UniProtKB/TrEMBL annotation:
Coiled coil: none
Region feature (Disordered): 227-266, 281-390
Positions with biased composition (Basic and acidic residues): 249-263, 298-311
Keyword Iron found: yes
Key words of the record: 2Fe-2S, Iron, Iron-sulfur, Metal-binding
Protein name listed in UniProt: NADH-quinone oxidoreductase subunit E
Organism the protein comes from: Actinoplanes italicus
Length: 390
């Protein structure tokens, strides 16, 4: 791997995390290392407990991207913390189902007991509390997790308070499900893609009854997948056709199947369906005639009126010529007076685009200019008044 020059802000973390960071980068194909940003951000949190400015600089330098790109990702996901967190992150689900089942009461009880709110850490630095939108365990609602592992199912305010007190006092807390409880920094190491180094920690948790309900019902009723062996790894490629399966397709399968003679019942059903379609078509025609009653008959001319008018003025479609020949005659005296005083611009362009147009604009401005100029032009817009008002 090429040598990376780290900025002063990134050097402290680079001295500690460079080797595991390179191990993470090695998981991705050449040229796709940028995809390693997510596990790298978790790796940064193993040291500092949150994504610090130095952590952003470290990720940017090792991936060859700028800090704004790292920050955009780090601020998008809630699992990347933007300020220091406690040793244990306690999350209470307050989404729809958990809320109905008492999740908000559990959260409120912890807020009152710890004296902190969402995203805040207790005074002893042990517990960071947050409410979560969903923890994907609706069948155990309401649920509480510690460092993203399920710890208390069907929680109550009392059981949640007991949980945080055990954590603060260093007592062993057996999770309802999931692995043995660890610190948040240790969990970030696992989220970065490394195995839990604690012997037997993963086996501590057991699956809950709602999770195993489907398996238990299948065993009770003798339901099983044919040929499934749980000890056989799932193949990544399509398995070969087993013996006794469907034969491969041959040209014989492409031949058209000869139509068999229809029975009396099938023929009667087919005739009835045809008659029903014909009747439906007749009804639709009658409805259409009723809807269009009184409307003008379509003559086939579907041109837009404006297009038709433009073609009548200039049938050949070339540039405008003599206005006297291409423009329709005014229809009344007022229109004729307006047309007579409206000198058109040359070449069909707006006035001012040509020398002739500029002269027209100049001439009209001169005609509209007042004969005398008031030394105080601000008064020109004042409403005229009577002598008494003055």
């Amino acid at each position: 791997m090429t040598t990376v020059e780290f900025s002063p802000a990134a050097e402290p973390l680079a001295a500690k995390l460079l080797e595991p960071a390179r191990e993470i980068l090695a998981r991705y194909p050449a040229g796709r290392e940028r995809s390693a940003l997510l596990p790298l951000l978790h790796l940064v949190q193993t040291e500092e407990g949150y994504v610090s400015p130095g952590g952003v600089a470290f990720c940017a330098d090792i991936l060859g991207i700028n800090k704004a790109q790292v920050g955009a990702v780090a601020t998008f996901y809630t699992m990347y913390k933007r300020r220091p967190t406690g040793e244990y992150l306690v999350s209470v689900c307050t989404n729809t189902l958990c809320n109905v089942m008492g999740g908000q009461e559990v959260y409120d009880g912890l807020v009152e007991h710890l004296g902190v709110g969402h995203g805040e850490t207790s005074a002893d630095g042990k517990i960071t509390l947050e409410h979560a939108e969903c923890l994907a365990a609706c069948d155990y609602a309401p649920v509480v997790t510690v460092n993203y592992d399920f710890t208390v199912d069907q929680a109550t305010p009392e059981s949640a308070v007991e949980l945080v007190e055990n954590l603060r006092q260093g007592k062993e807390q057996t999770p309802a499900r999931g692995a043995r409880i660890c610190s948040l920094k240790e969990m970030q190491y696992q989220l970065a893609g490394f195995a839990d180094p604690r012997d037997g920690a993963v086996a501590d948790g057991v699956a809950g009854a709602p999770t195993l309900r489907g398996v238990r019902l299948a065993q009770q009723h003798g339901v099983a997948v044919a040929g499934f062996d749980p000890d056989t790894p799932i193949t990544k490629t399509k398995p070969a056709r087993a013996e006794g399966g469907l034969p491969p397709r041959t040209d014989e399968a492409d031949k058209p199947v000869e139509a068999k003679p229809e029975g009396k019942i099938a023929s009667a059903v087919k005739k009835a369906a045809t008659a029903a379609k014909s009747a439906a078509g007749a009804v639709a025609d009658k409805v259409g005639e009723h809807r269009h009653a009184g409307r003008t008959t379509d003559t086939g001319d579907v041109k837009d009126p404006e297009v038709r008018a433009a073609e009548s003025r200039n049938p050949t479609g070339d540039t405008p010529g003599d206005p006297a020949t291409t423009s329709p005659a005014p229809g009344n005296p007022a229109e004729r007076a307006g047309v007579a005083s409206n000198e058109p611009a040359g070449d069909g362009k707006p006035a001012g685009d040509t020398q002739r147009g500029e002269s027209i604009v100049t001439q009209r401005n001169a005609e509209q200019k007042p004969a005398t100029v008031d030394p105080n032009p601000g008064w020109q817009n004042v409403r005229p008044g009577t002598e008494e008002e003055k």
